[in-house]
Amino acid sequence: MSRDPMEPVERSVSDAEAAAHGAQADPGVPGAAGAAGVPDGPGGAEAPFLELLARGASVEAYDRPVLLARAEGLPAERIAALEHAKRLALRVRSELEGRRRREAELSALFETAHDLAGLRDVDAVLQAIVQRARSLLGTDVAYLSLNDPVRGDTYMRVTEGSVAARFQQLRLGMGEGLGGLVAQTARPYVTDDYFRDARFRHTTTIDAGVSDEGLVAILGVPLMLGANVIGVLFAADRRARVFEREQIALLGSFAALAAAAIDTANLLTETRSALAGLERAHEIIQDRSAVIERASDVHDRLAELVLRGGGVHDVAAAVSQVLAGTVDFTEAAAAPAAALETSRAEGHAVRHEDDWIAAVTAGGELLGALVLRGHPGLDPVDQRTLERAAMVTSLLLLARRSAAEAEQRVRGELLDDLLDARDRDPRVLRERASRLRADLDATHVVLAARLEADAADADQEAAARRRLWSAASHLAATRHGLAAARDGGTVLLLPLAPGDTATELAHRTARQLGTAVHEAVTVGASAPVRGPAAHPDAVVAAYEEGRRCVEALRLLGRCGDGAAAEDFGFLGLLLAGDRDVAGFVERTIGEVVSYDERRGTDLVRTLDAYFACGMSPARTKDDLHVHVNTVAQRLERVARLLGEDWQSPARALEIQLALRLHRLAARIPN
Question: CA-CA distances (angstroms) from residue 112 to 133, 134, 256, 261, 513?
Answer without folding.
Answer: 10, 14, 11, 10, 78
